[in-house]
Amino acid sequence: MPAKGWIEVSDQYCKGCELCISACPQGVIELDMSRLTPKGYHPAHLFKDGCTGCAICALVCPDAAITVYREVAKPVPAAA
Ligand code: SF4
Ligand code: SF4
Question: Fewest Cβ atoms closer than 10 Å to its Cβ: which of 9, 16, 36, 48?
Answer without folding.
Answer: 48
